[in-house]
């Protein structure tokens, strides 16, 4: 029997390093994913040891490790650093996003990165100690792998064979799990019955619509794991998926052909011929709209058509732009595949401004920021506003103080009948002693709200600044003799997350769920109507069809993701994670009666999907 050669002392470390570095690389990647899902398990309801994320995680870690094993030493080490920085950076970004936006990061968020940076503050960047420790641990493991791999040069047949096996196993595991979640999903055909979409054309029950729609980032990341989530995000956003444009256009054609004509109701046309001033309130939350901090707006609300059960779901990162899109287009902005450019170039004949324009109205929009922010200078004219007026255009003395918006009053009310869209700003954070608004109103609000938290008082100070503009606007309309002929519609863009403590905001609002936290004001004032409280569930996407009905605008042939709130259709609020509220809140964690759940999930899927297809196809432009 041939005696096995003993390894020399110089060879032993090399052999150990050759075996150790792929193991350390795999562990660095795998433990980063596992630890991330453990730390943020509260964000979803996928078990840490569920077979789906584990299969994706192990599969991708095998793929990435195998790729490293197949590379020469120098490219391998470069790629090890890249993988480490990429996924540790993504982990940190996801954690910060969850704290700030209550969801995880998506590639599409890059569309708003530059604009969002203009309003960013260091206080917004928060990452837990556990997350930091996890990232440091992953870096240490990869650094050890990097150090060990320095001793491994050249190729060995055994290493190539092992890498090929690992690569094949990883690809097979990921592909099989992807196929299982996709089920029989192919092309959805939308058909409409009286109440909901019919069963025809929907995918088999094996389809996981959370995976297909990729709307709920929290559930998706915890279900897919860090690596499959990243891959699918890139795949969907960069347009790699198979897309049968002709078939999807045909599906929409059939849907639109089946749309019933809008039925009139008791409120149809009650404001016909009147002017409209539509005001989107920055971060004015329910508890902020009170008689002490906002007396002018509070008085209007008490004498308005007040929709007391209205929510402002956020689908994209840019919360203010998110609600602008919902209120002006009545389409749900997709979280992937549709770039912001679509809103600036697509045809939107049924936007709010275009509907008013068709009735002979002039339409302009007003906001303090430059037209380059969220490209409002391109978006608003494309939506039908003849001009987007900036703070500079209005000669605002201090552009972030809403009181100076009144400088644009003449342009806001010129050429009646008019449709004027105003976006306030002063409710925006960050709150601090350096902010001029805090300096102006902190002491006054502290006296009005004794014993309240410092951050609560600062929020009220910012609300007071916005109320000054409302007060001056009402006075100016009255003095110009326009008050009786003008309807004022107010809605908040989102709840006040500038408090930077959702538990505290929940306490202020008496709410214990992050989705229900998004209840915010929406009311419509006319001096000719008595105020009334309307408790029908609704959201931002219902604003356009409701106003269109009140003003008697022609919406024949339009498809909206929302409804006219005075119609007989039941109210429905759809949240970004595909939970819904129809008077009763159904979390995606709840057990719901099977028949009811199936019908509602199809309706939710329809409203998400049709909105996306209209935007992807530029349907109203090319489909004519």
Explain this structure:
This protein is an alpha/beta fold and 624 residues long. It has 2 domains: 11-182, no CATH class; 261-622, Alkaline Phosphatase, subunit A, CATH 3.40.720.10. The chain has helices spanning 11-39, 51-70, 73-101, 110-117, 129-149, 157-182, 209-213, 217-237, 245-257, 295-302, 319-329, 341-345, 352-358, 376-382, 409-412, 436-448, 454-479, 502-509, 543-550, 594-617, 619-622; strands spanning 275-281, 305-307, 310-311, 362-366, 387-389, 418-423, 486-492, 522-525, 532-534, 538-539, 573-574, 580-581, 585-586. The strands form 3 sheets. It has an 8-stranded mixed β-sheet, with helices on both faces. Helix 1 packs parallel to helix 3. The longest helix is centred in the N-terminal third of the chain and has 29 residues, at 11-39. The model is unreliable at 186-206 (pLDDT under 50).
Properties at a glance:
624 residues; alpha/beta; Alkaline Phosphatase, subunit A; eight-stranded mixed sheet; three-stranded antiparallel sheet; 21 helices; 48% helix
A few lines on this structure:
The chain is of the alpha/beta class and 624 residues long. It is 48% helix and 8% strand. The chain has 21 helices and 13 strands.
């Amino acid at each position: 029997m041939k005696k096995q050669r003993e390894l020399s002392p110089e060879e032993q470390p090399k052999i150990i390093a050759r075996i150790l570095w792929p193991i350390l690389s795999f562990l660095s990647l795998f433990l980063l994913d596992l630890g991330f899902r453990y730390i943020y398990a509260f964000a979803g309801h996928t078990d840490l040891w569920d077979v789906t994320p584990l299969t994706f995680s192990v599969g991708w870690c095998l793929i990435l490790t195998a790729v490293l094993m197949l590379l020469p030493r120098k490219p391998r080490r470069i790629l090890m650093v890249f993988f480490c920085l990429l996924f540790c950076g993504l982990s940190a970004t996801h954690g910060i996003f969850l704290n700030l936006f209550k969801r995880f990061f998506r590639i599409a968020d890059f569309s708003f990165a530059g604009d969002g940076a203009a309003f960013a503050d260091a206080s917004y960047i928060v990452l837990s100690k556990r997350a930091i420790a996890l990232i440091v641990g992953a870096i240490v493991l990869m650094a050890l792998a990097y150090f060990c791999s320095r001793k491994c040069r050249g190729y060995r047949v055994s290493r190539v064979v092992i890498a090929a096996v690992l690569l094949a196993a990883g690809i097979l595991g990921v592909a099989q799990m992807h196929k299982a979640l996709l089920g029989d999903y192919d092309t959805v055909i939308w058909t409409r019955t009286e109440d909901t979409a019919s069963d025809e054309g929907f995918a088999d029950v094996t389809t996981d619509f959370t995976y297909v729609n990729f709307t709920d980032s929290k559930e998706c990341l915890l279900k897919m794991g860090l690596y499959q989530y990243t891959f699918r995000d890139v795949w969907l956003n960069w347009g790699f998926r198979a897309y049968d444009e002709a078939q999807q256009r045909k599906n929409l054609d059939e849907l639109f052909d089946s749309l019933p004509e809008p039925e009139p109701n008791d409120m149809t046309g009650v404001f016909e011929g009147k002017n409209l001033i539509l005001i989107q309130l920055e971060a004015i939350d329910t508890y902020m709209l009170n008689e002490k901090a906002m007396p002018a707006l509070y008085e209007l609300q008490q004498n308005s058509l007040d929709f007391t059960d209205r929510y402002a779901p956020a689908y994209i990162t840019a919360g203010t732009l998110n609600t602008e899109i919902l209120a002006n287009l009545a389409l749900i902005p997709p979280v992937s595949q549709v770039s912001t450019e679509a809103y600036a170039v697509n045809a939107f004949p049924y936007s709010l401004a275009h509907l008013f324009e068709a009735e002979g109205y002039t339409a302009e929009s007003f906001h303090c920021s430059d037209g380059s922010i969220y490209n409002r200078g391109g978006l608003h004219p494309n939506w039908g506003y003849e001009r987007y007026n900036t703070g500079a255009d209005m000669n605002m003395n201090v552009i972030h103080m809403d009181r100076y918006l009144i400088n644009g009053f003449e342009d806001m009310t010129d050429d009646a009948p008019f449709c004027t869209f105003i976006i306030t700003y002063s409710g925006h954070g960050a709150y601090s002693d350096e902010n001029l608004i805090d300096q102006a109103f902190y002491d006054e609000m502290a006296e009005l709200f004794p014993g309240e938290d410092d951050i609560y008082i600062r929020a009220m100070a910012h609300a007071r600044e916005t109320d000054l503009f409302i007060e001056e606007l009402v006075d100016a309309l009255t003095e110009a003799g326009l008050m009786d002929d003008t309807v004022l519609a107010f809605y908040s863009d989102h709840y006040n997350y500038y408090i930077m403590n959702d538990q505290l905001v929940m306490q202020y609002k008496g709410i214990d769920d992050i989705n229900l936290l998004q209840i915010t004001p929406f009311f419509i004032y006319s001096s000719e109507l008595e105020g009334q409280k309307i408790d029908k569930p609704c959201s931002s996407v219902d604003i356009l069809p409701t106003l269109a009905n009140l003003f008697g605008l022609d919406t024949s042939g339009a498809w909206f993701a929302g409804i006219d709130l005075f119609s007989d259709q039941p109210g429905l609020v759809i949240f970004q994670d595909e939970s819904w509220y129809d008077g009763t809140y159904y979390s995606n964690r709840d057990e719901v009666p099977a028949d009811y759940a199936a019908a509602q999930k199809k309706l939710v899927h329809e409203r998400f999907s049709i909105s996306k297809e209209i935007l992807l196809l530029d349907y109203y432009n090319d489909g004519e």
